[in-house]
Design a protein that fits this description.
The protein is of the alpha/beta class. Helices cover about 40% and strands about 20% of the residues. It is elongated. The model has no long low-confidence stretch (mean pLDDT about 90). A hairpin with a 3-residue loop joins β8 and β9. The strands form three sheets. A five-stranded parallel sheet has the order 2-1-3-4-5, with helices on both faces. A four-stranded antiparallel sheet has the order 6-7-8-9, with no helix packed on it. Strands 10-12-11 form a three-stranded antiparallel sheet.
Length: about 240
């Protein structure tokens, strides 16, 4: 992810005055903020959009913050979560961290401290996103991919000109070799923030990769769909 992209934050807080004050301060810091006032709406937003950070209050209507954090993590989403709580007991803190929160702040908090913690979590997440291990070309099986030229030479389909999105998706899957890459991560890394293709769009890309690179596209060796979760490249 490039540093010039605006970092996006999902703010989940049902106390209206606090929500508005936080939103205003975050926007003044240059963040793009999406609001959710209960847990169910938060889960809905996360399914449809990529965020760099979730600020999550524990006491929420419909579904509390602990359940929201747990649901996010069960969906294999690694988005950083900063939990807010009016409770200062260590039990709550431990439970929040156990269920997937990356950081925890007790109300009332100092705004400057909150902003520093936010910046820290976002920077850490961006460093992880930027971690790149594959160079300009990559060889697997009887296939060679040139990411820079957006070309591939394959045993079964000959020489192929790849689209920019195909090259980006291939690179992302190969960089995460043998690991399932969640759909959300693909949407963010390949399609950018505000365009959300359907799962079928990604499926079609995977089908193309199988045609290009697999001996038997019905029994793929390299490119796999993991139902309901994401996609995986294996060697």
């Amino acid at each position: 992810m490039n540093g010039d992209k605006t970092a996006t934050i999902l703010l989940v807080e049902d106390e209206e005055n606090l929500h508005e004050a936080l939103k205003l301060n975050l926007e003044l810091e240059g963040y793009a903020v999406t609001s959710a006032f209960d847990g169910v709406l938060a889960i809905e937003a996360i399914k449809n959009e990529y965020f760099d950070l979730v600020i999550l209050d524990i006491m929420l209507p419909e579904m509390d913050g602990i359940a929201v954090a747990e649901t996010i993590r069960l969906g294999n989403n690694e988005v950083p979560i900063l939990m807010l709580s009016a409770k200062n007991t260590s039990n709550d803190k431990v439970l929040g961290l156990k269920k997937g929160a990356d950081d925890y702040l007790t109300k009332p908090f100092n705004l400057e401290e909150l902003l520093l913690r936010i910046q820290k979590l976002i920077n850490k997440n961006q460093k992880l996103q930027d971690k790149s291990t594959v160079g300009n070309s990559y060889t697997f099986g009887d296939n060679i991919i040139d990411f820079k030229a957006q070309e591939a030479v394959t045993k079964y389909a000959g020489k192929i000109q790849l689209s920019k999105k195909e090259a980006m998706l291939l690179k992302l899957l190969i960089e995460n070799k043998n690991e399932v890459v969640p759909r959300e991560k693909i949407l963010q890394a390949v399609w950018g923030y505000n365009v959300y293709p359907t799962t079928r769009t990604i499926d079609n890309f995977i089908l193309n990769f199988r045609k290009y690179f697999e001996k038997d596209s019905r029994n793929p060796k390299f490119f796999h769909s993991v139902r309901g979760v994401g996609y995986k490249y294996t060697e």
